[in-house]
Design goal:
13 helices; binds zinc ion; Arginase, Chain A; 9-stranded mixed sheet; 450 residues
């Protein structure tokens, strides 16, 4: 975590939470343009200050996961994972983590959540398969094309999320990271929004074998619909999604009124936002909602989906978040000290995705890293300055989130928590058996060079 302090404390600390209470000390918030220039000396100082983090971090990078191609014009670029990994290694962050090359998920594991006939189609279809009704039925179209190696790609990122969840359940790691996961739109029997297999649902199912209650937090700009739907009737998973909502923005779900059904009523929270939300408002809202979620629901573990399309200048997004603010949400969740599974998700301006997830890896390992990116074969990609915290203001979108509207959302969301009446009691003997007890032994612990 880059911990920097300003020469002077924030002035005029007002009682308005949007003014001062929840901003991080980082000078890289877009809301603090005065800090964006001339910060190199501060960075030098920060680099000499190593924060004390006793968290044991496990990092999962499936072999070859960045080598797949959805298609020339498709915005989802798995190469972003290779570049992220390269920056993580370049910063030397692997020295503070156990790095794993997980195996692919098995077909049986995919079928814990997905329907058999859907997995059968996913496993057998190729780019040369003639079109049939199944393509429509399973929603394989423009957003979700059939590409070479698609099934293995899905098994790779899902295997990593499952291995990471098992690691947390074993108690041998406090935090587990899989940037290739977080594909939150996939449904039980349908591909959606560039997602084919919902690794998040599979990982939460794994966590539920050992943890009576799991909190799912989603900061992708799109609603976490696939995860919400999977646990909509459950009081063992509280899903909380912060996203753009309205004007037919994909996937068009995630209204405040979606709160769960049956036993799961009030165990689903949605924070619908408008274009252009900025650092201060977003981080303030995030903290003021997540803290009571944790103290009220009392989860045994947390899954955090870190979609980077909520950053400013994203190719498909319309928010104004800086990498520092996005990372501040991660730091805040980490600060509760609960077993934490951190996943990727969306993110379509590739260089900023790589910057963001590298920075968040540093936040999670408790490391201070310099603003100057390490030299890699991707140097040209990051421009002449090669900065980690490149200001993302050039395409700044007008903020259409009036303070009063955000406050109304906050009050309505927190109202839902009041119905929860403390954490539900769960009988541990009702948990399903572990179907694959040999997972941890099968992990291939890898310590990359460099
Ligand atoms: Zn997204």
């Amino acid at each position: 975590m880059v911990v920097l302090s300003f020469d002077s404390a924030p002035t005029a600390q007002s009682s308005d939470p949007y003014e001062w209470q929840t901003l991080s000390d980082s000078p890289f918030f877009l809301d603090r343009p005065e800090a964006l220039g001339g910060s190199w000396s501060l960075l030098q100082d920060a680099n000499n200050v190593r924060s004390h983090s006793s968290s044991k971090v496990a990092y999962y990078f499936p072999k070859g996961v960045g080598d797949y191609h959805f298609g020339e014009r498709h915005p989802m670029k798995p190469a972003r994972l290779t570049i992220t990994n390269r920056l993580v290694l370049g910063y030397g962050l692997h020295k503070d983590m156990d790095v794993f090359t997980p195996r692919m998920a098995s077909r049986e594991e995919l079928e814990w959540f997905h329907d058999e006939d859907y997995v059968e189609f996913l496993s057998s279809v190729t780019p040369s398969t003639p079109l049939s009704a199944a393509f429509t039925r399973f929603n394989f179209a423009d957003d979700c094309p059939v590409f070479d190696g698609m099934y293995d790609f899905c098994r790779s990122y899902a295997g990593a999320s499952l291995a990471a969840a098992k690691k947390l359940c074993s108690g041998t790691a406090d935090i587990a990271i899989n940037w290739s996961g977080g594909l939150h739109h996939a449904k039980k029997s349908e591909a959606s929004g560039f997602c084919y297999v919902n690794d998040i649902v599979l990982a939460i199912m794994e966590l539920l074998r050992y943890h009576p209650r799991v909190l799912y937090i989603d900061i992708d700009i799109h609603h976490g619909d696939g995860v919400q739907e999977a646990f909509y009737n459950s009081n063992r998973v509280l899903t909380v999604s912060f996203h753009k909502y309205g004007n037919d923005f994909f996937p068009c779900t995630g209204a405040l009124s979606e709160v769960g059904t049956g036993l799961g009523k009030h165990f689903c929270l949605n924070v619908p936002l408008q274009d252009g939300i900025d650092d201060g408002a977003y981080v303030s809202l995030f903290k003021s909602i997540i803290e009571p979620c944790i103290t009220t629901f009392r989860p045994e573990s947390i899954v955090l989906q870190c979609g980077a399309d909520s950053l400013g200048l994203d190719r498909l997004g319309c928010f104004n978040l800086s990498i520092a603010a996005h990372g501040e949400c991660v730091r805040f969740v980490k600060s509760f000290g609960l077993p934490l599974l951190v996943l990727g998700g969306g993110g379509y301006t590739v260089r900023n995705v790589a910057r963001c997830w590298s920075y968040e890896t540093a936040v999670l390992t408790g490391r201070c890293i310099p603003d100057k990116l390490p030299s890699t074969e991707y140097d040209a990609f990051f421009g002449p300055n090669r900065r980690l915290h490149e200001p993302l203001q050039a395409g700044r979108v007008e903020n259409q989130n009036p303070r009063v509207a955000l406050e109304k959302i906050r009050i309505e969301v927190l109202d839902q928590l009041r119905y929860m009446h403390g954490a539900p009691s769960v009988q541990m003997h009702e948990l399903p058996p572990d179907l694959s007890g040999a997972w941890l032994e099968e992990d291939n612990l890898t310590k990359p060079e460099g």
